[in-house]
Amino acid sequence: MLMRNLPRAPSASNERVGRNEAQEPRRARKKGDGATLDYHQALSKSILYFEAQRSGRLPASQRANWRGDSALKDGADAGVDLVGGYYDSGDNVKFGFPMAFTMTMLAWSAVEFRTQLSGKNELSNAQAAIKWGSDYLLKSHAAPQVLYVQVGDGSSDHSCWQRPEDMTTPRNSSKISDMKPGSDVAGETSAALAASSIVFRDSDRNYANKLLIHAKQLFEFGRKHVGLYSDSIQEARGFYPSSGYDDELLWAAVWLHRATGEETYLDFLFKSSTTGGRRTLFSWDDKFVGVQTFISKLILEGKVGEGGIWGEYKKAFDEFVCSVIQKGNGSNVEMSPGGMLWWQPWNNLQYTTAAMLVLASHSDHLAASSATLQCPRASVSPQDLISFVKSQVDYILGANPKHMSYMVGFGQEYPGHVHHRAASIVSIKKDRTQVTCNGGFESWFNRDAPNPNVIDGAVVGGPDAVDHYTDSRSNYEQAEPATVTTAPLVGVLARLA
């Protein structure tokens, strides 16, 4: 489903899971009236969610066993193997731009909180989720200056309601090249592969090196052939359009520097014509905050100075963090009456989870340097940041005015009518009868009953600015989950668990 974004700001567990029948949700207790939120369980479910989003031939280790093999001929139209990867949200299209961001967020989660993931016996599951995506991105990078960035047609897909296992919509493959550039998606894919290389460096050196080779090639491709991918790929324009590419190239440089230590990437960051200035959010389309996070880390570690452009990156970052935690200079991020950060109506929680990964990481960066954050309204300690992160995660998991978890399968009450094709139609393992394009709407989308499959770990778009939520499949702005929403939450939950 289309994931609208806000305009850019100007510069200035291992058990096998087979849950096929949804139960009517029961009221969950709000944290503070006797219940304790189980972050470990939420962490396990957040990683499990990615198994429900898998495209391709499923492995024997598949735990979300209501899903089946799907899209086994992807890439055939172009003579390449594009089987695998992830569906981005509640539809059956593989959109490369948000998929790459999803992989960067998953990899960041594993890089930053590897110890915590390992301590909760979830590192191997997280690595499996990352490798499912990084394997696909490697396939997509078919040549140094060729990157396949989409499989499927959004318009026809959104006109049908079918399980991915029996979809009949076109599976067209779209690519960028030297003649049809896409610096943004090339940069984000480079960042995803560079970050993933760090994840596998200790366990599979050869694989990590392969990821790094492709990451470097994609960075150079994006630098030398400049342009927006959504200008080159018409099929992407109406669904995940890009508003710029400077941030993705800087984002790639940050991760390549972290993966290699090579000064050339630091030089690229130093010579940039923009630091992004103060941003209003961090998302699949705007990576400046992520860049600023890691440059602030370098400053804290004494690896770069605080003057010049480095100081500009840090100043903008500090302003963003202060505005998120409500201690800025008056232009803080809006909050709902119930205490939820509010950006916009369409999948608002994607911005919350991304920002919370930033805050959780920065808290540890500050703590490692025995430093604090100076905001206009207060001096903020690392623990203050974690406390704020916890408040937002608790809201998502049920400590909110509706006493409802917005993570599916977590707690006693959670959305049952999730806007998700696979979850809303009986599992092909139970009934192999073909679900037709229109028949899916008639038999499944329009049903009043909860979805037959519980898509554990999916985080829906969330409530509106005054904490209202309508549990309806037709309410795609609030009821549709997406990989970009859950991916950063993996790291945050690891930190809290």
Largest sheet: spatial strand order: 1-2-3
State the major sheet: 3 strands, antiparallel
- Radius of gyration (Å): 21 Å
* Average predicted confidence as pLDDT: 93
Distance between the termini: 31 Å
| Strand residue percentage | under 5%
Give a count of the beta strands, DSSP E runs of length 2 or more: 7
Query: Which word captures the global form?
Result: globular
Structural class: mainly alpha
Helix content: 40-55%
Number of helices: 19
Query: What order do the helices and strands follow?
Result: HEHHHEHEHHHHHHHHEEHEEHHHHH
Name the poorly predicted regions. Answer: 2-34
Describe the structure.
This protein has 497 residues and is mostly helical. It has helices spanning 39-52, 96-112, 114-119, 123-140, 154-158, 183-199, 205-224, 229-232, 234-237, 246-260, 263-270, 288-300, 308-324, 349-368, 382-397, 421-424, 437-445, 476-479, 483-496, and strands at 94-95, 146-151, 173-177, 334-335, 341-342, 373-375, 378-380. The protein has a three-stranded antiparallel beta sheet with strand order 1-2-3. A two-stranded antiparallel ribbon has the order 4-5. α2 (96-112) packs parallel to α19 (483-496), α6 (183-199) runs antiparallel to α7 and α14 runs antiparallel to α15 (382-397). The longest helix is centred in the middle third of the chain and has 20 residues, at 205-224. Mean pLDDT is 93; it is low at 2-34.
